[in-house]
Design a protein that fits this description.
Number of helices: 9
Distance between the termini: 28 Å
Number of domains: 1
Number of strands: 6
CATH topology: TIM Barrel
Bound molecules: flavin mononucleotide
Mean pLDDT: 83
CATH architecture: Alpha-Beta Barrel
Low-confidence stretches: 1-35
Order of helices and strands: HHEHEHEHEHEHEHH
Radius of gyration: 18 Å
Strand content: 5-15%
Structural class: alpha/beta
């Protein structure tokens, strides 16, 4: 997706989190010069007026960022996911869209949604002019895990989330032509390509980046190009959604 270009210095000043990335590799400057700033609109556990929290962050950030994300899907903040209920989500999005100015707004959803919930969210997102849907956040599901840590509290990310989040991504792709951002368990170019074929126009990875570092990004980009070419596509974007009806994701 196109975003305004900013210098490394600007990116670091605007986002304290970016300062934590060490300029250890030659890829650092390449990556940082393409950084797009996204403000995430959350609330805190201790918040007294949750809708106001979203509005406060958006008001502060909207002139400085390329996009804003409404996160209603983190399992780590008590009751946050209740906002995926249609009435609550409508009220929240109306509030956010009223004050967003020209900032495109993304909606980030959970991987634990039922089909009927997905249909309602799609309808509302289209009506509200949401620019893209991010599928998905972490999961509370522990099915299939054998680790002794499996009963730990909180959202689960990484490999165990891959199939589940890709299934939800493909379901959204079948329901809407809104751009989709695929996230959940991506750790290789093959997995990024699978997300793209399931319907993602953009792929995000978080856990794999923590384990493997920034060099994963150029490896992923090169791998994607090779995979798309092997399938006979001139560009990676030509593969977006070609597998959204694959029975694997039904
Ligand atoms: C330590 C950690 C912190 C996260 N913080 C946020 C957050 O603040 N907001 C959010 O929307 N998602 C957050 N996520 C979810 C990730 O953005 C991503 O949706 C999820 O981890 C699945 O992708 P992955 O398997 O590549 O990690 C966090 C995930 C992890 C592991």
């Amino acid at each position: 997706m196109p975003g305004k270009s900013i210098s490394i210095g600007e990116a670091e000043r605007e986002s304290p989190r970016l300062e934590m990335i060490p300029p250890a590799s030659p890829e650092y400057s390449v990556i940082m010069s393409y950084v797009e700033l996204i403000a995430e609109l959350p609330w805190n556990k201790t918040s007294e007026d949750r809708a106001k929290d979203y509005a406060t962050v958006l008001n502060m950030a909207r002139d400085k960022v390329d996009f804003a994300t409404v996160n209603v899907s983190s399992p780590n903040t008590e009751k946050l996911r209740d906002l995926q209920g249609l009435d609550a989500l409508r009220a929240l999005l109306e509030n956010v869209m009223d004050i967003r100015g020209d900032t495109p707004v993304f909606l980030k959803i959970a991987p634990d949604l039922q089909d009927t919930e997905i249909a309602g969210i799609v309808q509302l997102a289209e009506e509200m002019d949401i620019a893209a849907i991010i599928a998905t956040n972490t999961t509370l599901d522990r099915a299939g895990l054998r680790s002794k840590h499996k009963d730990e509290k909180g959202g689960l990310s990484g490999q165990p989330l891959f199939e589940k989040s890709t299934r939800v991504l493909a379901r959204f792709a079948r329901e809407t032509s809104l751009p989709l951002i695929g996230v959940g368990g991506v750790g290789s170019a093959e997995q990024a390509y699978t997300k793209i074929k399931a319907g993602a126009s953009l792929v995000q990875f978080y856990t794999a980046l923590a384990y493997e570092g920034l060099s994963l990004v150029p490896r992923m980009a090169r791998g994607l190009e090779t995979l798309a070419k092997a399938d006979g596509f001139a560009t990676v974007s030509a593969a977006v959604g070609i597998d959204k009806n694959d029975p694997r994701w039904s």
